[in-house]
Automatic annotation (TrEMBL):
The active site is at residue 45. It comes from the Bacteria. InterPro entries: ATP-NAD_kinase_N, ATP-NAD_kinase_PpnK-typ_C, NAD/diacylglycerol_kinase_sf, NADK. Gene3D superfamilies: Probable inorganic polyphosphate/atp-NAD kinase, domain 1 (3.40.50.10330), Probable inorganic polyphosphate/atp-NAD kinase, domain 2 (2.60.200.30). This is NAD kinase. Keywords: ATP-binding, Cytoplasm, Kinase, NAD, NADP, Nucleotide-binding, Transferase. The gene is nadK. Belongs to the NAD kinase family. It comes from Fervidibacillus albus. SUPFAM superfamilies: NAD kinase/diacylglycerol kinase-like. Involved in the regulation of the intracellular balance of NAD and NADP, and is a key enzyme in the biosynthesis of NADP. Catalyzes specifically the phosphorylation on 2'-hydroxyl of the adenosine moiety of NAD to yield NADP. Its EC number is 2.7.1.23. The lineage of its organism: Bacteria, Bacillati, Bacillota, Bacilli, Bacillales. One of its GO terms (molecular function) is NAD+ kinase activity. GO terms for cellular component: cytoplasm.
Amino acid sequence: MKYTVISKGDEKSNEIMNDLNDRLFSHGFSFDEEKPDIVISVGGDGTLLYAFQTYRHRLQETAFVGVHTGHLGFYADWVPSEIEKLVKAIVTMEKEVVEYPLLEVVIQFDDGKRNESYLALNEGTIKTKEGTFVMDVEINGELFERFRGDGLCISTPSGSTAYNKALGGAIIHPSLASIQIAEMASINNRVFRTIGSPLILPSHHYCDLKPVTGDEFVIGIDHLSFEQGNVRSIRCQVAKEKIRFARYKPFPFWDRVKASFIGE
């Protein structure tokens, strides 16, 4: 089996990365950065997001494993003290593959001919570069509302525990193929109104965001952020692709939520 290890880059994570490399190599596994069967992320959720974006072109062939070395590792099954157990599990056990839904974000530009497509494991965010963010929100081709505020966050079920949760969104189990739209500081008064509540769309629905004032935005895709001009519309929907996690021990989703936010 071919594997690679991606480290957060701090001393502790690098030590674990080197330890994993030594152990897996001694068991006859092949290190392959280009076409790995398993990607082991050592760090926090940001490291796993980086690993996902690095191998988003191999989602059908590659499974991910997380080792948590930070303060909060929602995607990580393992901690540094369990490295020996992890290697033993990889060597001797048949992995269970668990799939999580992803978000597809497609930006259509003013010329109507060019578009760019992205996948997000956690969320996509759209904010204006300056002034008030004004965007028509269409659901399945029908105008739902004209949003005014700081921006919008569109999250996956697994990403519902991240920025979406901070915005007051619901936590959604990853078995539900859906996306969630959460508002950032919406403007609501006797003149301007928004729904004022997160919206959860199923996999057969899509959302189009169409600029009303301006066409330059700051767009976030997971840990990535970039400025984009000449935007005509942004389509958000559940992606056809899914991320695959290699599980060698049970760690139910609600146990992850409890461990991350409530504790023992």
